[in-house]
Fold each of these.
Amino acid sequence: MTATAASTATGGAASGLRHLAIIMDGNGRWAKAHRLPRIAGHRAGVEAVRRVVEAAPELGIEVLTLYAFSSENWKRPADEVADLMGLLRHYIQSEINALHKNGVRLDFIGDYRALKPDLVKLLEKARLQTADNRRLTLIMALNYGGQDELTRAARSLARDVATGSLDPEAISVETVSARLDTAGLPPPDLVLRTSGEMRLSNFLLWQSAYAEFVATDTLWPDFDAASLADAVAEFATRERRFGGR
Ligand code: FPP
C-alpha cells in the first residue's frame, strides 16, 4: 500500500485492533546498510519507537506492546547489552514527561526486576507516574520470554496448590492468564514483526493464541506512522474466527 492509501487506512478502533504487539527487528541490518555501528541502529530504533507511540492512539490502538529486550538478548556481546540498557534508561528519563502529558500509561512485562537496581527504580517510578493515564497503554517487554513467563506462572500456581489454597481442578485458562505478566490486558489482536523475519521468538506465546501475524520487510529504524497504518489496514482485511468457522 502507498503512504497515501495508508493515511486513509481504517483505524484500529474500527478494525477491531485494540492491542498491537511488535517484534522490533532489523536495527543491526539497518546500521550495516548505513555503514554505522550497531548502536546507531538501536538509536535509530528508539526514534521509531517515538514515532509509533505517537501514531498508535491516532489509529485507535489502546495497547501497544514492544519487545524491547528478550530474556535471550543477554547472549549478545556485553557492550551491546550495555548499549541497549543505556538507551532504555535514556528513553525513560527523556520521554517520561512527554509520555505522561500525552496520556500514555507505561508498564512492563518480563522479569524486569532482574535488571540493574537503579534502572528498576526508574522503571517503577515511571509506572507509578503514568498509572492513571488512559489514552494508550505502552507495555515494554524487558528481560521477557514467553517460556519464562509461563514457567513463573506455573511455579506460582504450584505454590498455591502446595499450600492447599488452590484446587488443581480449578486451574483454567482464566486462572493461568491471571498469573501472567499481562494479567488484565486484552490479548494481542495483531503481532507485527519487522525486517522480514517470520518467527515469534518466544514473544507472547500464550497470549498470541488467536492473534493475526503480519511481517513487513521494513527494518525497524525505518518504521513510521505510514508503515503502522499499512499494518493496521492489512489487519482490517483479515477474517478472524477464533477457532470457529
Ligand atoms: C532487534 O534488532 C532489536 C532489538 C534487539 C530490540 C529493540 C531495541 C530497540 C528498538 C532499541 C531500544 C528500545 C528502547 C525502547 C529503549 P537486531 O539488533 O536484532 O537487528 P538485526 O537482526 O538486524 O541484527
Amino acid sequence: MEKGRVLLALTGIHPGRWRELLSGEREVVLEPDGASDPSITYAVVWKQRPNLLSSLPNLRAVFSIGAGVDHIFADPTLPDVPIVKVVADNLTQYMTEYVVWRVLDHHRQGLLYRSQQQKKIWHEPPQRPAGDISVGIMGLGTLGRAAASVLLSLGFAVNGWSRSDKPMKGVSTYAGEAGLIPFLNATDILVVLLPLTPQTQGIINYGVLKELRKRNGLGGSVLINAGRGRLQKDADILRALEDGTLKEASLDVFEVEPLPKTSRLWSHPKVFVTPHAAATSDPVHLVPIMLRQMAALERGEKLENVVDRKAGY
Ligand code: GLV
C-alpha cells in the first residue's frame, strides 16, 4: 500500500504543532483544503465539519485526537471506515491525576479549608480514613481502570459501573441498567468517565444523583465529571446542590462549552470548575502513535483501538 496523505481537520484547536509533527513522516493537508482529494487516505480530526470525510474517496481511517469520539459521530454522513481513538499513557496519566486530585480534595475538605483560610479561621474538622469512603467510577475503560488502581492504592473503597461487566481486582463492579441503582447506593464520590453515546446522554440527572450514598463521613455525596458535558444535566446538578442531594461537585465538562458566563455553576460555592482541561491531548505524545498506526496499516497489519461503531465508543 502506498504512503497516503493526511487531512488535518481540527475545530477550536490550533493545528500548528499537530501539522508539524505529522509532516515529519507524511504530507499533510490542512482543512478547508483537501475536500474530495483522492490522495488523502487518513484524517486526523477534532469536531470535523459535517460531510467533509464522506467527500474523500480513498479514506482508510479516521484518527480522533481525543479519547472521546462523540465529536466524530456528530457527522451525519460519516463514511464506513475504521475510527481510531486515542489511547496513550500520557493522556491516561493526566486523567488519573485529575481524578485523584479531585477525589483527595473533596475527601480532605479542600473547599472548607479554602473558605476557612479566607476568613482566617483556625479549625480542624474530624478526619476520616479513605477506607470509609467509596469512590464509584462510571466507565471502566482505560481511563477508569487507571484511576481506580491509584485510588485503591490510596486505600479508598472503589466501585465500578460499565455497560457490560468489566471485572477488576479489588473493585466492586456493577453492570448495565440493573446494576446502576445498587452501584449508586454504594457510592459516596461519583466519578464520571463514560463515553457520550445516545444511551449515556443525560445519564447524570437528578434521579441518579438522588441514589448516591449520603450517610458517610464526608457529610454528603460528591460528583466529579471529567467525561463529557452532555452526560449531565447542569440544571439537575444545581438543584441537587441546592437541596443537599449533593454536597459538592468538581466539573471539567458542561452541557455547553465554553461554560456560558451566565451559568450559575461558575460562582456556586460548592462547585469546582475547570475548562475541559482534565486530560489534554498533547501532539508530542499522540502523533507518533498515529503515525505508527498508519504505517502498520500500510504494511497490512491491523489498527488498534478501533471504535465499536455500534456501541459508539
Ligand atoms: C477530551 O475531551 C478527549 O476526548 O480526549
Amino acid sequence: MATIETPSRGTWNSKLGFILAAAGSAVGLGNIWGYPTQVADNGGAAFILVYLVCCILVGLPVMIAEITIGRKTGKNPVGAFKSLDSSGFGAIIGYWGVLCGMMILAFYLVISGWTLAYVFEEIFKYSGNSELSAWFGQLDNGPKNAIFTIVFMLFTIGIINGGVSGGIERATKVLMPFLIFILVAMIIYVFTLEGSAEGIRQYVLPDFSLISGDLILSAMGQAFFSLSLGMGALITYGSYLKKNQNVMESATYVTVVDIGIAFIAGLLVIPAMYVALNQGIMIFGADGDLISSVALVFTVLPQLFENIGGPLGLFISISFFLLLGLAALTSSISLLEVPVSYVIDEHGIKRKKASLIVGGIVLFFALIISFDIGLIDIFVNIFNEIGLPLGGLMTCIFLGWVWKTGNAITELENGMPGAANSSFVKLWAFFIMYICPVLISIVFITTVLNLIR
Ligand code: PFF
C-alpha cells in the first residue's frame, strides 16, 4: 500500500484554487440546464427538498471519500485504486470511471456546443436573418452540432494543456466569479418582470404529495451528476491537493456552492418561464405539465428574450447562453482531465500528447452523437444514470471495506488535526460504510430495473 508523492504532476496553487476548480467541475449544465429541468419535470419545490437530502446524505460523503483517495495516492483513479489494493481488483473502479468520463464528455460536448450555437442564433434573429438563425438554433442539425462540438473540444483541450495550476486553476478562477455575476444580474432583471412572482411561488412552495419513487431516483441521479461524483473526477482533482488543506471543509464548500448555484439557476429559469407565460408563450405541454427536457432552456427562454426585444433582449440572451457555455467549460475540463491524467500517469505520455489522443477518441463519439442526438438519451442512461451511482457505490464499498475508514481518517488528519476524534468524521465513516452503500444500492437497482422494463 504505497503512498506515492509525485509533485511533478502539479498541485493547486491555493486553497481557493482547489475549491473553485472542484466547484467549477460540479457547476455545469447539470445545474443551469439539468436541475431546473428536473424541478419543472418533477413538480417543483418537492424535488428540491429530496435533492438536498440526496446531496447531503450521499453526495457529500462520497465527495469526501473521492478527494481523500485522490490526495492519499496522488494519482489518477486507476492508479489510485491500484495503489491502495494490491489485488488489482480495485483498478476496475478506476477504469470504469475513465470510461464513464469519456462517454459523458462525448454527449456533454454536443450539448455544450448548443450553448455556443445559440449565441449565433440570437445574433442572427436580432439582425433579422431568420434563415441563419433557424440553422443555428436547430438542435438536430448534424453539421452545425459537429462544428460547435469541435470548437468546444478545442477550448477544453486548450485549458487542459495549460496544466493543473496554469490551466485549470487559472481558468476557473476567472470563469467562476464571472458566471455567478451573470447569473445574479439576470435573476435581478427577471424578478422585475410581470409573472415572475408566480414562478417564485411555484419554485419555493413544496407540494409533498408529489414525492414519489421516480422523483427520488431522479434526485439521486441528479445529485451524482451535478456534484461530479462516481467517475473519479474528484479523485483526480484531489490528487493535486496539498497535504495542509482540510478535505472535509473543502468538500463541504464545493457541495454548498454546487447546491447554491443550482438553486439560484432555478430561481432564474422557473420564474422566467412564468414571465414567458405571462407574455403568451406556451410553457405547458399537451399533457398539461410544464415543458421540460431540452425544450425548457433552449426554446422557452429564447422566446422570452425575443419578447424583451431590442438590444437589451439580445444582450440578456447572449449573456445567458455564454453563462451556460462557461459553466459547461469548467465541467468539461474536469471530464477530460480524468482520462488524460490516467494516460499521463499510467502510460508515461506527456500532457499535450495525452490530451490530443484522449480528446481525439472522445471527439469520435461526440461527432457520432452530433449527427444523431437521439443517442444522448442512451449515453445518459448507461454512463450517467447507471454509471455514476455504480461508481459511487463501488467507491464507498472500496473505502469502507477494502482500504478501511481508519486509513482514510489518518489521511484526513492532514490539514485537519484531531480528525479521528471529530464526530463529523466518525459520522462520515459510518455513512460511507453503511448508509451510502444501502441508499445508492436501492437507487441503483431500481434504476436498472426501470431501464430494462
Ligand atoms: N457536474 C457537471 C454538471 O453539473 O454539469 C457534470 C459532470 C462533470 C459530471 C464532471 C461528472 C464529472 F465527473
Amino acid sequence: MVSRTIPVDSFDLVVIGGTGDLARRKILPALFKRFCSGQVAGESRLIGAARRAFDTDGYRAFVRDALREFAGEIALDEDAVAKFCATVDYVAIDARGDNGWQDLADLMEAGAAPDAVRAFYFSVGPGLFSEIAQKLQRFGLTNEASRVVVEKPFGRDLDSARALNAQLAQYFDESQIYRIDHYLGKETVQNLMAVRFGNMLFEPLWNAQYIDHIQITVAESVGVEGRGEFYDRAGTMRDMVQNHLMQLLCLIAMEPPAHFDPDAVRDEKLKVIRALDGVQPHHIVRGQYTASDGALSYREDVGNERSKTESFVALKCHLNNWRWAGTPFYLRTGKRLSHRDSEITVVFKDTPHSIFGPEAGRHRNELTIQLQPNEGITLGVTIKEPGPGGMRLVDVPLDMSFAEALGPSADTPDAYERLIMDVIRGNQTLFMRNDEVEAAWAWTDPIIRGWEARGDVPKPYDAYSAGPDDAMLMMRRDGREWKGLSK
Ligand code: BG6
C-alpha cells in the first residue's frame, strides 16, 4: 500500500498540562509519529505549558522519556527523537494566576513561522477551561484563527455541560473549539462511514425492514487504572456510554450526510441522538466487578467499600424514526471483562421464506465491524456445506482483515495522530459539536437520575467474566445472544 501523508501547515501546538498523563501517553507520542511520517512542517513547534518548573532542556528530557515509554519501536530511532525534541519548548505557567502567561506570549511571538496555526490543547480538568481561555485572550495569545482542543469529560450532566459550553463560547467561536472523542479518530470507526456510504451493497438494506438488531460492545479487560477517584464519581454511563458508545451508535444509525463535511455529518449525528427514546429501567443492566482471578474488586480498586457506581452497563434502546422503528440497538461496555474486544454487529433478518425447510436451521447474515484489538470487517454469509448428503447450510465469514488486505505497511495511526492533525487542518468533522454533547447528556441524565432516585445497586460480576448474568438474560428474553466476549 502506498502511504500518503499530506503535510499540514506550520503550527504552534501549546499543550497546557503538558506534563500530565494524557500528554505523556497520547499527545506527545501522536505528534512524534506524525513528525516521523513527514507530516509536520519544518518550523512547527510543540510548546509544553504546565506548573512544573522545567527549563526547555528539562522538558525535552521529559518528552524523550515519554516517547521511550509510549511511542513504541519508532522511538528507538534516536536521531528522529533528537530532531523532534529540537522542536519542543516549555513555559512554566500558573493556570489560576498570571505567572508565565506573558512568557508564553513572548515565546509564541518569537520564532513562529509566519501565519503558523495556533492550537491550544487543554489537557487539564474542565474546572480550569474557563480560566485558561480567559488568560489566552487577556495575554493576546489567540485570534480568530486560533483553535482550542478540549477533552472529555464535558461535564457530568446536561447543566454542567451547558455551563462549560457557555464558558468556552465567551472566548471562542464554535468553529474554533475541537472537542475530542478519541473513538471518532479510530481508523475502523471512520471505516464505518466508508463502508456504509462508499458501497452500494449495504445502504439499501440498512433499515428496520432488513436489520433485526444492532449490537455495540466495547469491552475492556483493564480496571480503573489508577483513576479510581475520578471513576467512582463518574461511572461507566458517564465515562463511556454518553460519549464513545453514543458516537458509534450515531455513525451506525445516521442518515447519509449530503457531504463529508463537519456540519453535514454532525447534523445527521445530532438527529440520531434526538431520535433516541428514553430507556426503560428493565432494559438496562448496571454491573460492578468483584474480586476474581487475582484481580481486586471494583470497590477495592477505587477505595470505596460502599460504592454504588457501575463499572458495566448493558442497555437496549430504540430510535424513534422512520428508518429504525422496531429495530433495537443493544449497547454494552464495561471494565475488567474477560478480554479487550470492541465490535459492532449488524444482524440481518431471516430470509422471508426458507426454501430448504426447517431442517436447514436458522441462518442470518451478520456484518461485524471489529474495532479493536484487531481491526477488520467480516460479513457472514450462508452457503451450502460442501459434499454430498443434501442441502446442508453453513455460515462462513467473508473476511477482511485490514492488515492482511492492505499489507503490513497498512499503518493504522493512533486516534490521536489523526485528530491532532485534523485540528491543524481545521477539519472539525471528527469532533463533537456543542449541541451533540448536550443532546447526549439530555438522554443520559434521566437514566442516571433514575438510578440515584431508586438507590440502585449495580449487579456484581466476577472480574474477567462477560459481565453480570442479567445482561445475558436481557438478550435471551428477546430471543437473541450477545456476540463476542465469552466467559
Ligand atoms: C476513555 C475512558 O475515554 O476511554 C477510559 O475514560 C477508557 O475509562 C478509554 O478506558 C478506552 O479507550 P480505548 O481507546 O482504550 O478503547
